[in-house]
């Protein structure tokens, strides 16, 4: 495969820069700062040090023995991004971008968040560097991820509720872009997924590629061979592209992205962009987009706020069209069941987003004996406790502790 | 020569600045827009920007966001916006600029759009979220059909970018007066003077200034610097407040008249 993206941020026909002119020069500035930082040993050393001593890299590659035995097929490893500081992979990108913001002299940081993990990670790095932090979050997401709203505020960030549209991630990004276009001279937009206008998709990938690079070394140590498949959930697609990237040249390794199947296959009830969408333009990039026949962006649904978004990151669109990666979807109920099973076989409470990837591994493993799977466990489930409680009400009863697995 | 080019030629001859009026097509309902546009024309509007409503209008402030929501709820689509243009064209020669975010147009298809827009009497297109870097394939279809392509220049644009914007624009260049979204402001942005001056240095195209112009005295100031002033949010706000009233047309007409009065240069 040809190295992607091109110098203007195109992954084949996807990506690019579809933004109002006011944002073009600022995007050029971000790109220039990012390119310089890649060549700057001092920057790279500082980032590496923070990732190691503050975030907790490298993360373990854990062999899920009981889960593997219970499935009786593929050997399943979990890449434990959930063990990072703040509880998800998002901190990798936030540390990288906050160093860039400092390099550009920006004192005000804005971000969007869906599940709240990116918001918490952004609030964290802003506290660490003493920067003003404003996080836009859909009101629906604030309701279902209350714990993360409080964590952000505790860390000193201002959380601004967005009440337009579906009141989820899409609307939070729109509002963050409106803030950026207004306060562009003082503000860095710390976009949290492999989305948006160039250079964000490639820059965010760059800050997360350590996930796959570590996993590649770790699996070779443990199994003396490459894995047969890498599985990762895909909202915008940052944890997935981070996990996939090091393996793209390894043609024998299947790259499997898992989208949110939601409640049903009806438009508006899921976030499966490849099966239900068509190429379109949203929030700065061209990619697969859930939309109606008139080009209006459709509402989405997922039990997991982090996967509840209408556009997929442009590099995933390219990997899909090239046949290099495969994308499937998992419905809400199956993700919840997979989360429960991981809790009880491995003692790990996953984020609902990551539970979608676990669910796909549960589907495939029994028919793949002798194979090795790596599931990117992108986040931990503390933030989702309210949703787990709603869905497992029997555990809240007085005799909940007598229920068997 | 397009209707847009003819307009600016006439304004130049008369040494008068033009009034460009933005309206969200389909707000409050698609059946009313043509009548609102004709009222704006009677009041003195020289060119109409017909806004195509979009679900995620990232460059717009709350007033135009709400207008888009109303228009979409009323069932407005790109097809109906073209119908509205046809209705206007049956009764008027006022230049019409289709003003849109990319996705509804991408979905419609640019070849089809170019053909149908010409047929509906549209004179040009402005794409809110299309950078000149991405523009080639889209502009090619639009230009081939004989339509103008108007691009935005911003206070953040470097000289290199201003040159690109000028190079990709025909008809006129739209200067965004401030960093930010559409909306009303008490004072005009200080960026206007330098932006007009820098743009003049790289192009002989007419220059229109918009974003944050809502009152006759603000239009007057802009009219002394540029070839036209664009008023959007203030018009859309009248539609929002009086959409259910039968006198909305006369309110728009008299508002346009006040703006035009403010713009007029003494002979």
Structure write-up:
The complex is a heterodimer of chains A (405) and B (267). In chain A, α5 (117-129) runs parallel beside α7 (146-154). Chain A has helices spanning 24-38, 41-55, 65-71, 90-103, 117-129, 139-144, 146-154, 169-182, 200-208, 210-223, 238-244, 273-276, 314-321, 332-346, 352-364, 385-391, and strands at residues 10-11, 14-18, 61-63, 75-80, 108-113, 132-138, 158-162, 187-189, 229-233, 254-262, 278-282, 284-289, 325-331, 372-377. A 6-stranded mixed sheet of chain A has the order 3-4-14-9-10-13, sandwiched between helices. In chain A, strands 1-2-12-11 form a 4-stranded antiparallel sheet. Chain A has 405 residues and is α/β, with parallel strands linked by helices. Chain B has 267 residues and is α/β, with parallel strands linked by helices. Chain B is globular and about 45 Å long. In chain B, 49% of the residues lie in helices and 14% in strands. Chain B is built from 12 helices and 9 strands. The longest helix of chain B has 16 residues, at 248-263. In chain B, α8 (159-168) links the parallel β6 and β7. Chain B has a 9-stranded parallel sheet with strand order 5-4-3-2-1-9-8-7-6. Chain B has one domain: Aldolase class I (TIM Barrel), CATH 3.20.20. Classes of the chains: A alpha/beta (405), B alpha/beta (267). The A-B interface holds A 8, 16-26, 28, 164-165, 170-171, 174, 177-178, 181-185, 278-284, 286, 289, 291, 293-297 and B 54-59, 61, 65, 72, 77-79, 101-108, 128-134, 151-158, 161, 165, 176, 179-181.
């Amino acid at each position: 495969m040809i190295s992607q993206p091109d110098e203007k941020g195109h992954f084949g026909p996807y990506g690019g820069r579809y933004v109002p002119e006011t944002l073009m020069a600022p995007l050029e500035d971000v790109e220039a700062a990012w390119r310089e930082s890649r060549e700057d040993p001092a920057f790279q050393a500082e980032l590496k040090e923070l990732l190691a001593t503050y975030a907790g890299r490298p993360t373990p590659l854990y062999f899920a023995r009981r889960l593997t035995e219970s499935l009786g097929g593929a050997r399943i490893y979990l890449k434990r991004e959930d063990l990072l500081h703040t509880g998800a992979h998002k901190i990798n990108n936030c540390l990288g971008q906050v160093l860039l913001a400092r390099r550009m002299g920006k004192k005000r940081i804005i971000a969007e968040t869906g599940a709240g993990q990116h918001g918490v990670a952004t609030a964290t790095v802003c506290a660490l560097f003493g920067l003003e932090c404003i996080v836009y979050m859909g009101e629906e997401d604030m309701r279902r991820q209350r714990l993360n709203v409080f964590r952000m505020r505790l860390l000193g960030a201002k959380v601004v509720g967005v009440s337009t549209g579906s009141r989820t991630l899409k609307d939070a990004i729109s509002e963050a872009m409106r803030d950026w276009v207004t306060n562009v001279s003082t503000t860095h937009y710390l976009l949290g997924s492999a989305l948006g206008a160039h250079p964000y998709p490639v820059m965010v990938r760059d800050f997360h590629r350590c996930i796959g690079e570590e996993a590649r070394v770790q699996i070779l140590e443990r199994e003396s061979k490459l894995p047969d498949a890498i599985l990762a959930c895909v909202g915008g697609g940052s944890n997935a592209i981070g996990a996939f990237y090091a393996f793209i040249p390894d043609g024998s390794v299947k790259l499997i992205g898992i989208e949110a199947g939601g409640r049903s296959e009806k438009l508006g009830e899921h976030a499966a962009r490849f099966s239900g969408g068509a190429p379109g333009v949203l929030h700065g990039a061209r990619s697969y987009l859930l939309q109606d026949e008139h080009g209006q962006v459709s509402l989405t649904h997922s039990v997991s706020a982090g996967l509840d978004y209408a556009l997929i990151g442009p590099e995933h669109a390219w990997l899909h069209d090239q046949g290099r990666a495969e994308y499937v979807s998992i419905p809400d109920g199956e993700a919840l069941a997979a989360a429960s099973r991981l809790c009880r076989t491995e003692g790990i409470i996953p984020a609902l987003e990551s539970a979608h990837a676990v669910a796909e591994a549960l589907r495939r493993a029994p028919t793949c004996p002798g194979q090795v799977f790596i599931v990117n466990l992108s986040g931990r489930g503390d933030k989702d406790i309210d949703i787990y409680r709603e869905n497992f009400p029997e555990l809240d009863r007085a005799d909940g502790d007598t229920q068997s697995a | 020569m397009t209707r847009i080019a003819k307009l600016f030629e006439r304004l130049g001859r008369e040494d008068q600045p033009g009034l460009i009026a933005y309206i969200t097509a389909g707000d409050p309902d698609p059946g009313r827009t043509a009548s609102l546009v004709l009222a704006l024309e009677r009041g003195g509007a020289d060119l109409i920007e017909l806004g195509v409503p979009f679900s995620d209008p990232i460059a717009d402030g709350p007033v135009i966001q709400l207008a888009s929501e109303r228009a979409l709820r009323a069932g407005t689509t790109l097809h109906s916006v073209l119908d509205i243009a046809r209705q206007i064209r049956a009764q008027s020669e006022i230049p019409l600029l289709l003003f849109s975010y990319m996705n509804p147009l991408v979905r419609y298809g640019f070849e089809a759009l170019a053909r149908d827009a010409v047929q509906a009497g549209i004179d040009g297109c402005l794409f809110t979220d299309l950078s000149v870097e991405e523009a080639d394939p889209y502009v090619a279809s639009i230009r081939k059909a004989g339509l103008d392509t108007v691009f935005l220049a911003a206070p953040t644009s470097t000289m290199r970018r201003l040159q690109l914007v000028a190079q990709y624009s025909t008809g006129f260049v739209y200067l965004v007066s401030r960093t930010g979204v559409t909306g009303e402001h008490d004072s005009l942005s200080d960026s206007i003077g330098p932006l007009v001056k820098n743009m003049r240095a790289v192009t002989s195209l007419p220059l229109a200034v918009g974003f944050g112009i809502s009152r006759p005295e603000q239009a007057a100031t802009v009219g002394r610097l540029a070839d036209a002033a664009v008023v959007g949010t203030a018009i859309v706000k009248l539609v929002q407040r009086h959409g259910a009233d039968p006198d909305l047309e006369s309110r728009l007409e008299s508002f346009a008249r006040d703006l035009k009065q403010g713009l007029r240069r003494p002979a």
